[in-house]
Amino acid sequence: MKNLWKHSGSYLTWTGVIHTAYALAMFGGSYWAMLRAGLVNTGSEGPGFWFLLLGPLLMMFGPLLQHYIRVTERPAPMRFGVSLLIFAAVGCAVYPTSGFWLFVPQAVVIIAANRRLGRQ
């Protein structure tokens, strides 16, 4: 359990996959309507447009984080874990029934690994 941090990038990637799959399942009809309308200037028509964008962003950032971990053989920096926890806390407070809670264990793993290594 103490080496969970070694997979932090993979966790972010999978969060992005789950996020994107959920977005497509919930708002797929809106996305198709936006595409049929030409996509340009249709962002306000799709209720989940910004929701959809977060998933691919996580799928791009996760491998980058995983590469960082593999190269440095260290967990993500403490400030990243703290920032991720703040992001999750604000998201959960604003939208309690969302998936923001998925970021909480990921942030805790990063923070705990840094504390164990005595990093700030």
Explained architecture:
This protein has 120 residues and is mostly helical. It has one domain. The protein is built from four helices and no strands. The two termini are 21 Å apart. 25% of the residues are buried.
Provide a short characterization of the protein structure:
This protein has 120 residues and is mainly alpha-helical.
* Number of distinct beta strands: 0
Structural class by helix and strand composition: mainly alpha
Largest sheet: none
Q: So how many helices?
A: 4
Poorly predicted regions are none
- What oligomeric state is this? single chain
Which descriptor suits the 3D outline? elongated
Number of domains: 1
Determine Rg (CA atoms, Å): 16 Å
What does the average pLDDT come to?
Answer: 87
* Percent helix: over 70%
Give the end-to-end Cα distance, rounded to a whole number of Å.
Answer: 21 Å
SSE sequence, one letter per element = HHHH
Question: What is the beta-strand fraction?
Answer: under 5%
